[in-house]
Amino acid sequence: MYLKLAWRNIWRNKRRTLITVSSVMFAVVFALFLESLERGAHDVMIDNMTRFHTGYMQVQDYRYEDEPSLDNAFYYDNSLSDRITGTASIAFTIPRIETFMLAAGAEITRGAYVLGIDPEREHQLNEIKDRLTEGRFFEPGDGTAVVAEGLAGRLNLAVGDSLVLLGQGRFGMTASGLYEISGLLRHPTREMNNQLVYLSLPDAQWMLSAEDHITALLVTPDRVPDTERIAGGLRSELQDEELAVLTWREMIPELVEALEFDRAQTRLMMGILYVVIGFGIFGTILTMTLERLREFGILLSVGMQRIKLAIVVFIETFFITILGVLAGFALGIFPILYFHFNPIELGGDMEELVAEWGIEPIMPTAIAPDIFLWQGLIIFILTTIICFYPTIKILTLNILDSSKQ
Prior knowledge:
Distance between the termini: 28 Å
Oligomer: single chain
Mean pLDDT: 84
Order of helices and strands: HHEEHEEHEEHEEHEHEEHEHHHHEHEHHH
Number of helices: 16
Strand content: 15-25%
Radius of gyration: 31 Å
Number of strands: 14
Helix content: 40-55%
Shape: elongated
Largest sheet: 6 strands, mixed, barrel
């Protein structure tokens, strides 16, 4: 009976109910969008770093993290890959060998980051072939190279030109090679776009005197949230070998710190937002309560018990809160979906700032169920606490004073 009475009461004055529901709805929409935008920006940072740099996990020689040298490359064959992929919840592995060398065209020389890869496996992780702007990707061992557009522009090179690489191989061996440029690609991060050279893994190993050796084996889990758990299992599996298993959090701690700092700023902003939202909702509830004081006084004067009236009014505000939260979910999904597929593109100083981190200058929104859960729950709890005001007002209401309203 209380529920039925409360439901009828909230629709006796549709305008008042819709104003209150709207205040809750827009609070939910704004909180959802802000949280989703922050989560999306963080996802872009992590995605760029893991897909194009570190991967989600790496297997390395235990000395490589402290001394990233080709001397600390480790032996790799299919049996190692099979052992790792045989572990539950691992999708695939990606072998890489990397080093810094001098890259030269006909007249200009620049420093280059040389990365030996298996193009098919690499494409599984970061869809690297789709980033080609000219030419084609090499086949394993065909003696050609794919160069990032920025580096090619600095060296005045194009598809079909020759690229000279000169540096130091494993155990101090001289490493040099002459490669035809088979394709150009646009790397999403500016720093890498200005210095990256891709070679096939066999070509890079031969040039660097590191046959059958790699510097890192990237491990991609079936589910990203399982990364830490899988890394712990791999450490147990490889504990008798001179290999270390590192997660992206361990390899790029500066990014983790930056994300934590940004989250702290967002929490502060959300706290201020909740205060503003709380006062806005309280204002509508206060107005609604004051408008009905005469009604409450009449009901009490004809014999309705205070506690029963308080319960009915609390259920009314509870219904209004639920309607506002659900309406906020329904309305909030539209801007979140739009900016998820049409990210905000950063420009000016902000673009330069994120480019320094090697991150694409875009801000998409994230679509995650827990965003809706937590923001809806927080607004619901906040509104429910505010709804105790009319309940307390009824329990302390002076009937004679209310008749003067």
